[in-house]
Amino acid sequence: MLFRSKRGAVLNLTAEDVRTSWDSVIAGFAQAFEILEDDCRVVLPRWLPYQTMLPPMAAALARGVASKAPSAGARRQQIARWFWCSVFGQTYENSANSQSAKDVPELHAWFDGGSPPESVRDFKFDTAVLRDTTPRQRALYSGAICVILGSGTGARDFHTKAVITRNLMLDERIDDHHVFPDNFLEKKLAVASKRLRDCVLNRTLIDRTTNQMISNRAPSRYLRDIKATPGFPFDDVLASHCLPTGDGSPLMSDEFEEFLNWRQQRLGQEIAALTGPRVS
Fold first, then answer.
1. How many CA atoms lie within 13 A of 164 on its CB side?
2. Beta bridge pairs of residue 178
3. Distance between CA atoms of 204 and 179, rounded to whole angstroms?
4. What is the CA radius of gyration of the chain?
5. Residues ≥6 apart with Cβ < 8 Å to 106
6. What is the CA 166 to chain-centroid distance, rounded?
7. Residue pLDDT, tens place only, 171-201
8. Distance CA 58, CA 271 (A)
9. Does the global pTM surpass 0.70?
10. 3-state percent helix, strand, coil for the chain, nearest multiple of 5
11. Residue pLDDT, tens place only, 114-172
């Protein structure tokens, strides 16, 4: 199946073109959604970094969607790696149609044993960018949140320790919130930079009940309250969010800069595992 993303090519499609490719394309989209949710942890539409990545992803998958051979598993892993490299490489930030037209044949060649797509082969990422990534940088920010969601055995709810899923996010009103509360940073630690206070290194997914309990308090205070619950797997929950653990952690001493350094390195490890080694 030839992938054509230009407007003129789409307008020139015939009814027979649509009929011939319809089933495989729909199957490709279905598998793309499955990979996004299960492998890339895009559990809600709002956390999809680039909607423009969906058509080339589905088109690449459509060609061999019916295969049950081991190559299907390899292809699935290749698609996931391409997704993460494209997100953190920001290849779909501009000229998405041109990038799509380039990626689909390169993905097909990779599936057939050829070289990885350029977006994978030449991928580089500097984790210092995460210090400047706020909800305004939607794609990078969403990608980092999805990395946190999928780390280890999956990010756990601070209230119940359940793995955070689509349904749990909706039922418990789980959303992205500050780890060091914004007001505490500004008023108590005199962190003047709003961008630094809001950066993704200082955010994670927290349920509404826990977030209300946190309020404007120092991490050391609200975490001790959570830890005081008898039998609660405190360190396991923190680690599942790529947060430091132990009494000597920067969270327990309210050391914001030390915390940012620690989490930048930790998220860098996760991103490197998903994309390849070229993460600095």
1. 32
2. 203
3. 7
4. 21
5. 116, 117, 118
6. 14
7. 999 999 999 999 999 999 999 999 999 999 9
8. 23
9. yes
10. 60, 5, 35
11. 999 999 999 999 999 999 999 999 999 999 999 999 998 899 999 889 999 999 999 99
